[in-house]
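Lecture notes, unit on protein representations.

Consider one protein chain, 42 amino acids long.
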Amino acid sequence: MKNRIIIIVVVTLLALLFLSLSDSEMATEVRTFLRALLRAMF
């Protein structure tokens, strides 16, 4: 369970890094989706 959380956090951070480099409408959608996903996890 702990490993899964660590993987999710790392992937989320990488996704946010990638999105900050390419700002667009889709980036904001994905960002809100990731935020909702993190809220669902914890």
